[in-house]
């Protein structure tokens, strides 16, 4: 029987205090549904007393039929010298319609005197009155002991008294907060261990990542006896963020043998992490532990042959457990085993004797010599493989493109591209403007293709990176352009290398469009100016 | 007396195993200089046996006069059944010319049998022979005990025997490696503690971040007795990266009271982190612990007044300690201390009452808002400072430029730029070709200026980097261009930001030329078509 650890997600409240993180009410509702699906126990939705947007959320969320999660509202203890039942913020907590509330209160004497500017005794009364009042109103109450660790280190007795008061007033859980994020794991362990002997209700932990140890701190607290863990998806949060639940969960469940979520829900961690990154409009770090694109990616040639034989030699857990998967990167450091693994992903078996495989291997070597690097451009790599295996369609051919840039005086700046394509035996000439030569080229190319392949309107470029390869020649040197494209659900990356940045960008652009059209070939109805018909691609290699 | 912990940086080797991280030989040399400046004890430069690029690095690095750091080369124990002195890879380590080497060997019996496919006894011989041979050749030897923690958990006796053999063969340090990154802090502590009682030489630690606890693991190891910590700047590295030295250092030095670097060098951590992100062409995460832009950023409201009166209420350490600064997002105080610090480097004292200082402060704020970041573009920053302090000369004015790019058929590709300048009251019209629009622009600009300032022939662009700022709009988003220039002895970096890549590049190009001409103003003899005279710049601001 595994011991249960309760998860308390504050992505919607503390998470949105992170710089650049902003969630609409609809975004919040979407995230709630996902968190409920995997079985997060508590979802802190916001601070009803602090802004009207949060109040709207608490109304809307009542319409959801949640299967696992309890929605909680966040607030503070009553104000100084006010009766609990007359405190506006406590009132709003009750009005929010939730069944669980988390209120924070001060436990650091220094903070009481310097920030709150009241007496130590009044602060204890504020905690007692607020908890008791909320309990009287039938709510489950979590008391967030703000600055607990800093407070405890400076005045053990007062910090302990503050949480004892909350316990006596009927709180259901005391969450010890490392508000500044500066405490280290060995301190957390020691202090939580002590507190667990003095407090008889559930102890929780709330960590911040200012020391880059928030996950370790959360684990330490659980090992010392805490059974309620607060954090956010992907570690969003004020300053350096909160403890990242996406990493806390598998560490607790897979490595330390606690029960956090149902075993079958563990494999949703990768998708929920990506989903929240998307909703919050954040780039997903490829090296994010457990769920990142690189988390189980193997680059060194030596590693690869070993990992294929015995994954446990270079993987700390099975990637499938958390819904991630192994990737083998094709790079200058890699050997043939990388390539073979890669090809297998698209169901090509590479046999050194097969002339197609031989062609592919030679092509890759040649391309890498030119400066191509496929580890971050898997779509281009897949096209290369498809080409070698004669699965290729030509959707358009370039006749020419021209670009004109003109800077004239302070305000006049224009960038135009003219592209002439041959699409399905028709010549198409288009022109477009852009914020730079590549943007103009992208616009003109898509303008020319849209009339034939309307589906192309669904895709867009989501990232554009340029890297100079041989830096001794600077602007005259070779450049590698990486383009990331998306159709709103999937993303794919393509690459172009050339001595000319425009040419390199063009190659990556063409690959991006080619990849999208090939992937969706079954959806393509060619709309030509002359007739509408099912398009049969030219088998051109 | 604080105990010393030795830092071993492997950004150049393990760091480049990270997906998307690729460093040229010149990039590596640049990073070495920075690491030496802050006093990192060991810098692992690469694996001379594995690729020719690394060998080139080891040759070039010998020309540097390093004040603190020892360059180390990475390799493995000898191959099976080969004598150490006949092993090609060990030979290459010796030939690399370093004084310190790190060789890895297997300590997990399962790996010896399954991955290495040899006997447990032969593996011990491989370790013994290799260490002894390198010692005979006068080298300091660090033995990287690969998979040590996994090995120790499965077969204590063999893992211990393997490192004992290395000790007996004369190794100077045993670095215990958590190769898969899956071990947790409490396990690291317990195992390192035991090993320290059994091994009499220095114990090191090498952690990976697969469990998001690499920093905590490194701290645990030191608390258990390790005195050598391996890691990378910003935590780059295979899969989820290595232990992030940028976080390990302040945790050890500020919180746990060990000595890692000289106290005065601690404040360079923020700038070195940014510098390495720039060189590696990686976006610096704004929530990066200690050094991120948001690490000490306080959102409006309650926190602000408290943090200004008593920073310790919401800051775990003083941001200045590590060269970062507090940002109060609603206040105008942000950025000032940073700025004053930088301006001091060029002997400008910034006084808030001085109108020039005021002008500069406003200008910087405006520029930073536009997306400028002067961390890696000090020449542009110095120009900005000079402009505010009325030390400015205008060497030329732009009338217009035009760029024409044409791709026509397989082989015809042309890129031409036309530039019209006003130099010393003369109008100059030039045209030039290039390998891309920026290269063509650079050629045309310099062609136009050379006849007036022949000294310009000595300078050239040595690096060119582009970064997209707002990645959601891809090719239509803002770009930041960084240009590095050189005259063969000195190097300087300039920046341009614009929605248009050409415009951003032009701004950086102009700064680069302007900086060079100002630096060498005393050498400039203006050669005009009409007359030769000492140039007196227009005082233009």
Automatic annotation (TrEMBL), chains A, B:
The molecular function terms of the Gene Ontology recorded here are: (R)-citramalate synthase activity; 2-isopropylmalate synthase activity
Question: Has UniProt tagged this entry with the keyword tRNA-binding?
Answer: no
Query: A Pfam family for this UniProt protein?
Result: HMGL-like
**PROSITE patterns, per database record:** AIPM_HOMOCIT_SYNTH_1, PYR_CT
Boundaries of every Pyruvate carboxyltransferase domain copy: 5-267
Q: Copy the pathway line from the protein's UniProt record.
A: Amino-acid biosynthesis; L-isoleucine biosynthesis; 2-oxobutanoate from pyruvate: step 1/3
Q: Which UniProt keywords apply?
A: Amino-acid biosynthesis, Branched-chain amino acid biosynthesis, Isoleucine biosynthesis, Transferase
Q: What reactions does this protein catalyze?
A: pyruvate + acetyl-CoA + H2O = (3R)-citramalate + CoA + H(+)
Xref: SUPFAM superfamilies = 2-isopropylmalate synthase LeuA, allosteric (dimerisation) domain (SSF110921), Aldolase (SSF51569)
Task: Quote the EC number.
Answer: 2.3.3.21
An example GO biological process term is: isoleucine biosynthetic process
Superkingdom per UniProt: Bacteria
* Cited SMART domains: LeuA_dimer (SM00917)
Q: Where are the transmembrane segments?
A: none
The first-level EC class reads transferase
Q: Which family does it belong to?
A: Belongs to the alpha-IPM synthase/homocitrate synthase family.
Q: Which NCBIfam families match?
A: citramal_synth
Q: Under which name does UniProt file this protein?
A: Citramalate synthase
